[in-house]
Amino acid sequence: MSAPAESQRCRIADTGRPEIHTVGAGPWTVRVHPRAVAVVVGLAVVAVALGAVALTLGDFPLPLSRVLATLAGSGSRVDRFVVLDLRAPRVALALVVGASLGVAGAVFQSLARNSLASPDLLGFTTGAATGALIAIVVFGAGAGGTAVGAVVGTLATALVALALLGGATGGYRLVLVGIGLNAILVAVDNYLILRSDLTVATAAQTWLVGSLTGGDRTTVAVVGTGLAVLLVPALGISRRLDLLAMGDEAAGSVGVPVASTRAVALGVGVVLVGIATAAVGPIAFVALAAPQLARRLTGTTGPGLVAAAVLGGLLLLAGDVLGQRLAAPAQFPAGTMTAAIGGLYLVWLLAREWRAGR
Amino acid sequence: MTSRLEARGITLAYDQRTVVEDLDLAIPDGSFTVVVGPNACGKSTLLRGLARMIRPAAGQVLLDGAPISSYGAKEAARRLALLPQSPVAPDGITVLDLVARGRYPHQSLLRQWSRADEEAVRRAMGATGVAELAERVVGELSGGQRQRVWIAMVLAQDTPLLLLDEPTTFLDIAYQLEVLDLLADLHAGGEKTLVAVLHDLNQACRYATHLVAVRAGAVVAAGPPSEIVDAALLREVFGLVGEVVPDPQTGTPMVVPAGREARRSGTVASTSP
Asked: How far apart are CA B8 and CA B67, in angstroms?
């Protein structure tokens, strides 16, 4: 083991309050925001607790003690099947999909310096849906093909959006391009469903509402691996994204390679959205709200990727649990729940920006 | 005269519009160089080109003898800092956090804060008089205070070369002078070469040790203000008829435009004895 980590504080002015916190071991020092760390830990605890509760819910109610026993390795065969094969993948899927969307939203919002620049408002999510629908309706694809179609659809939409934006990613232009793309893609989606026969249309519609019911271990593994792999470059450019908030020139002046940071961020965000949407269908609101709520809770200025990830997972899990329990035995898909809550949130956000005169 | 920063035959263009063409310019080491010129003459573009924010379509900017494009982003940022015209203070950021961002080129993923960073931030905040504002939110400060905070950020970067794009724009006259005095003090410290784009020719003459007059993307004259600023330059660069008299306070050249009638007829009523 190296020297024990030591915590340090930097006092610039004699105001009595420490302002810059670092944690260091040997020659290494990493800046930490104590409040952000506390918030992330707190959110993770809530997510785990909610996950445990979710494992008890369903047509076959299980007390928490039996769920915990089953997780620990004991439990009857039925219990094991219900908890480990049916419910755990669904909870895990909510967490990894939500986390992917949270990170993607944080990346896009930082990149565009615009709190409205989330993949759902930009049309990327609809683009993923169009890709998946083309796979289902035109090519009669199964789960795998649908996923590939969704990722391709996201990428294609992102490329078209970039071409239309011509390098400008700030301000209302971005949102307007997103609204336009969204409208066109929704029309395409409707056309694809209309021209297909009833069985295919039903399958497509089921996917389109964004539901976690189909979650199995393979899907969880794919999304989880994608998230883990993409988090590495995302965290790598996290500080640069934070600095980009000062404007391209100010960021460039302190040594941020602006163009390459943009490219990496876009790539990471697009692929995260593509994978998440491919797995469960379009999920609204999470990518829009998770980064902003996370920033408000942590009180930091940066993209706050880790906090956005944890909060994204928590939000989607909460949406799914609510959808299952709100009108039980009727089940609302998670995507419908998040869309309903997200609509209200968006109205509030726009009203606030409007008042602020931006 | 030696120059760590030099432009050699640079052409700067946005898309198809060429703003600066085949321009040569050397920034004298240790100078307070001020670039002046009429609106849209390319002075800000020139500064951005020197600060590697625009890649020249032709020619090269040399930093310490090597093409500036050959430096890594952080490597260049340890030698040259630019304060752009309208940087954005992220929502809710404190003064200390903003100034600390200037230390980015001296840091790495595993070395995000050091004694040297702390020292540089402390010095930068002391020099600009913003230490007591450390915990205030930047967005709530007055224009003059905010500009001093941004200057503190580029100072914390601790570079021998500091470029500023119209650092006094949008400020009241008293704040303009406050910022210019601050820059003059930094220059008097003897460790820094400053390059600033300024709007006000009289202020430029007061503060610059080296003046660069730009018109239509070309350097018309360069040198100490007292040697190059005269009525002919005024007419050539700004298309303005007037006379140049010694500033009653500092003795530096001061521009007095001719009266309305005289400017129309193109003559200057001589007032000097």
From this structure: 10
